[in-house]
Write a structure and sequence with these properties.
The complex is a heterotrimer of chains A (254), B (755) and C (451). Chain A is α+β, with helices and mostly antiparallel strands and 254 residues long. Chain A has one domain (25-247): Alpha-Beta Plaits. Chain A has 8 helices and 11 strands. Chain A has helices spanning 3-14, 41-49, 57-62, 98-102, 128-132, 174-186, 200-204, 221-226; strands at residues 27-32, 70-76, 83-89, 108-110, 116-118, 139-140, 167-168, 210-214, 231-232, 244-247, 249-251. The longest helix of chain A has 13 residues, at 174-186. The mean pLDDT of chain A is 91. Chain B has 755 residues and is of the alpha/beta class. Chain B is built from 24 helices and 28 strands. In chain B, the strands form 7 sheets. In chain B, strands 5-4-16-15-14-6-7 form a 7-stranded mixed beta sheet, with helices on one face. Chain B has a 6-stranded mixed beta sheet with strand order 21-23-22-27-20-24. Chain B is globular and about 120 Å long. Chain C has 451 residues and is mainly α. Chain C has helices at 10-22, 26-53, 68-79, 81-92, 102-123, 149-180, 185-195, 202-235, 247-273, 282-312, 316-327, 331-343, 351-354, 357-384, 399-422, 428-434. In chain C, α9 packs antiparallel against α14. The radius of gyration of chain C is 23 Å and the shape is globular. The chains are: A alpha+beta (254), B alpha/beta (755), C mainly alpha (451). Chains in contact: A-B, A-C, B-C. At the A-B interface, α2, α3, β2, β3 and α7 of A face β3, α2, α3, α7 and α8 of B. β11 (249-251) of chain A pairs parallel with β28 of chain B, so a sheet runs across the interface.
Chain lengths: 254, 755, 451
């Protein structure tokens, strides 16, 4: 191949935001809004698994909560014909992520498993990724956090504790994905099977309203529901190509 | 470079070397001891570094008895997950269950026995040895026992079952006291009474939510706090999804609960009229000929007076809606009607729940899948007769006031906080000469104790659970310690055993672990296919490994009602305290994520935005926006909520889905002595509840208090995470029309354990 | 100047400017000490506190992750366009009235950029790693992300600072030489080094003029691109109110506008306190006023376009953000901005107003306050109102942020005060170009050289 051809090929390969023509795994999450009750178990599970800080009332009052997964509430109508729609909002791991473009030091990038990853020790804290994210699911550490001993004994050793000045967000429990891939490799170099890895939120959901799996595997749970008539993505019109697919609530005739 | 001769050079090098050496030595000596690597040549038995060890146990944060699997690393508990094999929760776990780790590692845990050296309720607790603490209590009991006055000892524990319940029974018996009470604020007394009255059943039935296609919920927040929320959530999801007609949920309540938010229809009936509404539906079902049972005449007789127009006026729900609900209930079956706190906690609570049972009966839901199934006899002890309702607690208080009680032993229950109008109760208790608490935390009740003998928390203890709410068949699980005890505490069972020993009743078990094992030996010995192990030890090991035991012994339920059951159906109008002119609103206190307040000392629970309102770290009072406007109040205005019993303060929150004549407050905040995360935060609505009793059950009618709202002039910024809770047409939560459910379903397939 | 009763001589100019450097009254020291003290107290100490405590010392939150630091950054970059306009654009158009002012304007540019760079360090969460934005070979084998507009910023601003430094230095060489020839002792040594042995030969003048023009031509597109790139920090996002193509011209116009207003302020100060009344005259203010009027009209037009397109877009996100900006919590600031930047400058249509020094001073300060408000509003209101209404929030600056804002002014003032004592703040040789050439004077009676 000539020199120019090699450049052209490299250009073709790397110009796509996701960097990869083919994702090795393409982790996807589906959330069935008809079954989600909005109980918030997933929020606490995420907090426990990922060493999320206990920010305290003052920080909450200032609007500095750190909750990688939050419940959004939307009321419809007025009393007595009133409805409440609750939707869990977390990092959508967009294949066309606006946050990845803007980080000046590449602290957030799309890995070969389709995850939007955050490299804590590369982040210099410009917070432009949080500005660019239309789902507003990125959370900044405005100060160092402490845990009143012995609460710190609960911290998960597989996840770093972030220092001040660093941005963080949902990772689809990448530490669990990593461990599952390692376990699969030890078990005869096979691929991770559907259901072997579940992020903390998916695992704890009392209604089992969430599912997590590999889109590249046509037999996985998520692949079954991805193209269904109820599947949709939030803010789809922005073409972020998110990896979190919601299943529409069902409105009924009484 | 200046000239250096050889001697100077050597001196310099020597001095330099000594200096460096000294520096190294100095550095080594001032090293933090943790920096010295200690190789784990002989690691402790229960862990390998870097590898997680999982233990199955049972969550005790509420009475559902969900099975949990706890991940531990290097002897520390890291994460609690639901046990996928346990039929109650099947791998799921609620937020409070997840927060159990913070019960274990809470900085405000009691670390050892204490004796109050100052005045009661003061800060004068001194650390003592177990011997001293136990001795103080045992000697007092001994004296009473010897004098034949064992009945002056009272035992007040939270609702325990299984082995611990048996231990308490045995202990009470050995002392010779009838005063053994289980007290939980949220015990469904009315539900038990209603099931006893209508079906003659001692135990709670199993509500088969997963197979129902039309769920009519009368104020039952079954997805969040009623009976067994995790199990119900799973069932609800199954009824909504799958290859079948989608389950329909109607929620009838004055204030929208989380279950109401998930409902297809929300019907805001007047407080306390749910039973009348149910009978209105029943009337229509019988009158329109939808019910064709042989006892139709008796029904017609007893339901006369519940015509739809009359009921519509009383309940504030249109007759059309009532008719439609009644017909759907019968035609869109299998259907199921359930009644929860909203309906039950009124002065007509038992009658309301009986009416709901009647509704189920008339629609043919009793004993069929998707309806009301009866649980078999539980395999472990569940002493219903010990559950103290409000009337019982008032009697206990009267007995205390009347100097009939000399020793009060309290185990992990907090009546000083949860009893309505609780200052009275606390005052009565202060009359008891010796109060002992076995709690793991300092709380409002433990604060007035004289001796504290702190228990292990559930993650450090042996025990077992036979969830009463059940799953339709016998189920049980053993809870085991997942970490070594952190502090100088003991398992509750061991404390009881020790006290028994010191008061002359040496029970045949050396420890709680042995006691649990023994009780399970009995289960093993009544062996049938469910145990299927060659020896007890194999059984025990597999039991701990699975984390659950079950027996597929569904009860075949054919129900014939006797005439008196039918004749007993009827609901009076609810009564309320206070004059409606002075106190225009009905206060509805409801269980929040903190449950009855027990979760308030867990920072994760304080930081979990409330599922309906997204408020954190505080209390609030929910007002309908119209009501707020009439009172010239905006969100955040601090108001006094005054009942005939007293007054508390909370900021106003505008809540679109509540009746204009009702105000609601979450239970759980307002602690004064429950640790750094709970203290001085919010207000406790239970304080101002009027002591109205549901005569049918003796339980507290917690929805029967009228209040008035008075502005204080102050304003606070309510701390909540939601910005604007309207989606401005941006279609963030999309809804599909429900015309063709089956074609549109395509749900996430759920993994369930076949029953 | 020309036509005056007492025409200025070349020597007058030299004496005045050199005196401004060499002779220092106590007022100056007081001013410098105050500025320095304020810089330390208002800028550095709060910044060190923030380094210790975290960005939490500021008022930022979720979703208001950007605040006054970024607004200040953009504001100071905007101010830096003053020098570019006066120095370069007006140089190419051969306008004579710029000649007295442009040196100070260029200094403003340089120091604004320095302050803006400081604001970046204050703004990021971990400034001790800010060097990772520079593409240097490292053991991590990581380049910065060249697709990021923030990195375009780094490149553009570095280039701009470098260019401006070279530009101002190069243009000052003949003046350094002039000062060298009139001072003794340590000053003589310093200016000898700075003037690089300038002798004033024809060749040197020719080369200087050529190099100067060359750089001037290069710096103009640089200035336009720098602020366009800064605007793309916002415009390349996809969130409402920020994702607009008008941002590049909007910011550039705004920059030139606020830069020009900044020049008016600085010129007033120089006139007053450095005794440059004969060099900076009504003519200058008159022309600056005309410039301000044009820029104000342009700015108003762009704002109208923004409002117009926002509302007719029909997009809920855009309309909400705009409505919030006009009528929400920050509405008073919005209308203050409109008053100061669109309404008040219309006074510059009147020559009476343009040629009155004090009113022009007040107007220029008002314009800059309005321009700062504009930057702040872009940041704060857009982040408050994005796509998901549930995530809407409110950001309010904290005391640390206000203090640092005041501190940037103090820092700028300090730098400028130092500047006037080192650089000749009026360009001697260019001013001389506007004067009649001197009549032949017998060599014995002249006081100095013609350099």
């Amino acid at each position: 191949m000539s020199f120019l051809d090699r450049i052209a090929e490299g250009w073709r390969k790397n110009r796509k935001p996701g960097y990869y023509e083919n994702f090795d795994y393409h982790w996807t999450m589906t959330i069935d809004l008809d079954q989600c009750s909005g109980c918030g178990a997933c929020v606490t599970a995420c907090q426990a698994e990922n060493n999320l800080p206990i920010v305290g009332e003052k920080a909450f009052a200032k609007g500095r909560e750190v909750k990688w997964l939050r419940m959004e509430h939307y009321w419809e109508g007025e009393y007595p014909d009133v409805k409440l729609n609750i939707i869990p909002m977390l990092c959508q791991h967009c294949d066309n992520a606006p946050c990845e473009t803007v980080c000046p030091v590449s602290a957030t990038y799309h890995n070969q498993d389709g995850l939007n990853t955050q490299i804590y020790n590369r982040c210099i804290g410009t917070r432009s990724c949080a500005v660019y994210c239309p789902y507003e699911v990125r959370y900044f550490n405005y100060n160092d956090h402490t845990w009143d001993s012995p609460l710190d004994q609960q911290l998960n050793p597989d996840v770093s504790v972030r220092e001040k000045g660093v941005m963080e967000k949902c990772t689809f429990c990448i530490q669990r994905v990593r461990q599952a891939k390692d376990a699969a490799k030890d078990d005869g170099r096979r691929r991770v099977r559907d259901g072997e890895v579940q992020p903390a939120c998916v695992q704890t959901c009392p209604s089992q309203a969430m599912a997590f799996g590999d889109r590249n595997d046509p037999e996985s749970k998520v692949s079954q529901t991805l193209d269904g008539p109820r599947a949709y993505r939030v803010l789809d019109e922005l073409n972020t190509k998110s990896s979190v697919v919601y299943l529409k609530k069902v409105g009924t005739e009484a | 470079m200046p000239n250096i001769d050889r001697r100077d050079f050597i001196k310099l090098v020597g001095a330099g070397g000594v200096g460096v050496g000294a520096g190294v030595v100095l550095r080594e000596t001032i090293r933090d001891p943790r920096e010295h690597l200690i190789p784990h040549v002989l690691a402790p038995e229960d862990y390998s570094s870097g590898v997680a060890t999982w233990y199955n146990s049972v969550c005790t944060m509420c009475k559902s008895g969900c099975g949990i699997s706890v991940r531990t690393r290097e002897g520390r508990a890291k994460k609690i997950e639901g046990n996928p094999s346990h039929a109650v929760n099947q791998g799921g776990l609620c937020a409070l269950g997840q927060a159990g780790l913070q019960v274990l590692y809470n900085p405000d845990r009691l670390t050892g026995p204490l004796i109050q050296s100052g005045t009661r309720g003061s800060d004068g607790f001194n650390q003592v040895t177990w011997d001293a603490g136990l001795g103080r209590v045992a000697s007092r009991i001994d004296v009473l026992k010897a004098a034949g006055r064992g009945d002056r000892v009272a035992l007040l524990t939270h609702g325990v079952g299984g082995t611990l319940a048996t231990l308490f029974e045995r202990f009470a018996e050995s002392i010779g006291t009838p005063r053994l009470h289980h007290y939980d604020y949220d015990h469904p007394h009315a539900l038990y009474a209603a099931n006893h009255q209508f079906f003659g059943e001692q135990h709670l039935p199993y509500y088969d939510v997963k197979n129902t296609r039309y769920l009519l919920s009368f104020g039952a927040d079954f997805l969040s706090s009623w009976l067994s929320p995790v199990h119900h959530s799973l069932g609800f999801a199954q009824s909504r999804g799958g290859d079948h007609a989608r389950g329909h949920l109607v929620q009838i309540e004055p204030r929208m609960s989380l279950s109401g938010a998930a409902a297809d229809e929300w019907v805001p009936a007047k407080t306390g009229t749910e039973g009348i509404l149910a009978l209105g539906l029943a009337h229509h079902i019988v009158a329109s000929g939808l019910y064709r049972g042989s006892d139709a005449d008796e029904w017609r007789q007893v339901l006369a007076g519940y015509e739809l127009e009359k009921v519509a006026a009383q309940t504030d729900v249109s007759a059309d809606t009532l008719e439609h609900l009644a017909e759907s209930f019968v035609n869109k079956g299998p259907s199921l009607a359930i009644g929860g706190d909203g309906a039950a906690n009124n002065t007509n609570g038992v009658d309301t729940l009986v009416a709901i049972n009647a509704l189920n009966y008339l629609a043919g839901n009793i004993g069929r899948a998707g309806g009301v199934l009866f649980n078999p006899e539980p395999a472990g002890a569940i002493p219903h007769n010990r559950q103290a309702n409000f009337r019982d607690m008032m009697s206990l208080a009267a007995a205390a006031r009347g100097d009939e009680i000399e020793v009060l032993i309290i185990n992990d229950t907090n009546p000083v906080f949860t009893m309505a109008d609780n200052p009275e109760f606390a005052a009565a208790m202060s009359n008891v000469p010796l109060i002992v608490s076995l709690s793991s935390f300092m709380d409002e009740t433990t604060a007035i104790a004289d001796v504290v003998l702190p228990s292990h928390v559930y993650l450090e203890s042996w025990g077992d659970a036979f969830p009463e709410i059940g799953v339709g068949f016998s189920i049980g699980a053993v809870s085991q310690p997942v970490v070594a005890p952190l502090y100088n505490t003991q398992a509750t069972g061991d404390i009881v055993l020790e006290l028994a020993k010191r008061t002359g009743d040496t029970m045949p078990w050396s420890s709680m672990e042995a006691c649990v094992k023994d009780n399970w030996r009995a289960i093993y010995e009544q062996s049938d296919s469910s145990t299927q192990a060659e020896s007890f030890d194999t059984f025990w090991t597999s039991l701990l490994k699975a984390g659950v035991w079950g027996k597929s012994n569904h009860r075949d339920a054919t129900v014939t009602l006797d005439k008196s059951a039918i004749a007993g159906v009827g609901v009076q109008a609810p009564e309320f305290s206070g004059d409606s002119a002075d106190y225009p609103f009905v206060l509805q206190p409801y269980l929040s994520t903190m449950h009855d307040g027990r979760g308030a000392n867990l920072p994760w629970v304080q930081e979990l935005p409330d599922p309906m309102t997204s408020v954190v770290y505080g209390s609030w009072v929910e007002l309908n926006p119209t009501t707020a406007e009439e009172l010239s109040l905006v969100e955040g205005d601090l108001v006094n909520i005054e009942s005939p019993e007293g007054s508390i303060q909370a900021p106003v929150l505008l809540f679109p889905a509540i009746r204009p004549d009702v105000v609601a407050m979450p239970i759980g905040q307002g602690h004064t002595n429950y640790g750094r995360y709970a203290n001085g935060r919010g207000a406790n609505p239970l304080e101002i509840l009027s002591p109205l009793i549901d005569e049918g059950s003796g339980g507290l009618a917690s929805n029967a208090t009228r209040v008035r709202i008075l502005a204080t002039g102050d304003h606070v910024d309510i701390v909540k995470t939601s910005g604007k809770s309207r989606d401005l047409g941006r279609d963030i939560v999309q809804t599909t029309s429900g015309d063709d459910h089956t074609a549109q379903m395509n749900n996430i397939p759920i993994t369930v354990i076949p029953t | 100047m020309q036509g005056d009763a007492n025409p200025l001589k070349y020597t007058d100019i030299h004496n005045d400017v050199v005196a401004s450097i060499v002779e220092t009254g106590s007022n100056y020291y007081v001013a410098l000490a105050t500025a320095l003290a304020l810089t330390l107290i208002c800028f550095f100490f709060p910044w060190f506190y923030q380094l210790y405590y975290g960005i939490g010392a500021a008022g930022m939150n979720h979703p208001g992750v950007w605040g006054t630091y970024l607004a200040s950054f953009i504001f100071w970059i905007g101010l830096s366009h003053s020098g570019t306009l006066l120095s370069c654009v007006l140089h190419i158009t051969n306008s004579s009235w710029r000649k007295a002012m442009y040196r100070s304007a260029e200094a403003m540019t340089l120091f604004s950029l320095v302050v803006a760079a400081m604001m970046v360090m204050v703004h990021v969460g971990r400034p001790w790693f800010i060097h990772w934005t520079i593409p240097y070979p490292n053991q991590m084998e990581m380049w910065p992300n060249f697709r990021s507009p923030l990195l375009f910023d780094v490149m553009a601003i570095t280039t701009y600072i470098t260019g401006s430094t070279v530009f101002i230095y190069m243009g000052s060489i003949p003046d350094f030489a002039a000062v060298r020839d009139r001072t003794r002792g340590w000053r003589n040594t310093m200016y000898s080094l700075l003037s690089l042995g300038w002798r004033g030969t024809d060749t040197e003048w020719h080369r200087l003029h050529w190099a100067y023009t060359f750089l001037a031509v290069l710096i103009i597109p640089l200035a336009v691109s720098v602020h366009s790139i800064v605007s793309w920090d916002f415009a390349m996002s996809i969130v409402p109110a920020l994702h607009q193509t008008i941002f590049a011209p909007y910011f550039v116009v705004g920059a030139i506008y606020s830069g020009t207003a900044g020049i008016v302020t600085v010129m007033f100060v120089l006139r007053k306190f450095m005794d440059f009344g004969e060099y900076i005259t009504e003519l200058h203010f008159d022309n600056l006023g005309k410039l301000l009027l044009v820029l104000s009209l342009l700015w108003s037009y762009i704002n109208l376009v923004e409002v117009f397109t926002g509302f007719y877009s029909g997009a809920s996100g855009e309309i909400e953000a705009l409505r919030y900006r006009l009528f929400g919590f920050y509405a008073p600031l919005y209308w203050e901005m409109i008053t100061f930047c669109a309404v008040l400058p219309l006074l510059c249509a009147f020559k009476r107003f343009r040629t009155s020094f004090v009113p022009m001073l007040f107007l220029s300060i008002a314009i800059n306050i309005g321009m700062y408000t504009e930057r702040f509003l872009i940041v704060a209101t857009s982040l408050s109102r994005q796509y998901l209404p549930d995530a809407w929030g409110l950001y309010v600056p904290s005391a640390v942020e206000i203090s640092i804002l005041v501190g940037t002014l103090a820092l700028f003032t300090t730098l400028f005060l130092l500047f006037v004592k080192i650089f000749p703040s009026v360009s001697m040789y260019e001013v001389k170009e506007t004067m009649d050439t001197p009549k032949k004077i017998p060599a014995a009676a002249s006081g100095g050289s013609l350099a």
